[in-house]
Amino acid sequence: MYTIVLATQKGGSGKSTLAIGLAVAAQQAGHKVRVIETDRQGTLTKWQARRNAGEPIVEAVYDAKMIEPRLEALARDGVTVCVIDTGAGITASTTAAIRYCDLCLIPARPSVADIEATAPTLSVVRAWRKPFAFVLNQAPIRGGHRISDATSALDADAPRDIAEVLAQPFIMMRNDHQDALAAGLGVSEFDTDGKSAQEIKSLWRWTAGKLAGDHVMHEAGELKDASEHSDLEFPIMLTPPAEEPKLPVARVYPTWADNGIDWKAGL
């Protein structure tokens, strides 16, 4: 089973609509899909209440300690894709979801401020050494310079080949996403031939390729263990265990700590 987490520090980035869109697109591609919601706002739970179709089922899991056993149970039941939608901020449940995921997608609107706000989430992802990608979401259809500025900011935040960490395609801001949410549908069900539907389907194909290893997936750097911090609300400053060997790396990039910046300053 593949587990995909949608996470970012900033609210309003479109995590829930992307989670719904990807879950439905994965189901349409033939997967047995479940969705876990850790956000007490309950956007996905309310979406399913409006939905006539039973699948994909949304489960609310707020206790961080229950995420691992629930994922194990879903895998035993034959689920092939699990999508986890998280709330804003870095909470214990978000950290646990990232810890057990196969891929963390970090949505961000194409503005420098939104990109900078992803830094705490990226710190947790790197601490657990998880594969990740940014998703430029709610991009204006006529906003080329904004997208260019955002990709430049991403290149500074994640100093590596930007193609490795920037999901394709960008998701444009269209009413279809909100209309589908209100109707209890995925955007690829709401208007199967619409541009938004095609973008989400393409994003799912890109994500599936990432999971299958068609793209470079891992961040270079030391293997770090966060088990002793897994119940903390802000487990960002982590240290590597003495007994764990270091993974061979080709390139090592500076962290906030290397630059003398603590996580509070980066918020």
Automatic annotation (TrEMBL):
Where is the CobQ/CobB/MinD/ParA nucleotide binding domain positioned along the sequence? 4-46
Give the stretches traversing the membrane: none
From what superkingdom does this record's organism come?
Answer: Bacteria
- A Pfam family (short name) is CbiA
- Coiled coil residues, start to end: none
- Quote the CDD domains the UniProt record gives: ParAB_family (cd02042)
Q: InterPro entries per the record?
A: CobQ/CobB/MinD/ParA_Nub-bd_dom, DNA_Partitioning_ATPase, P-loop_NTPase
Name of the protein this chain belongs to:
ParA family protein
* UniProt organism field: Bradyrhizobium aeschynomenes
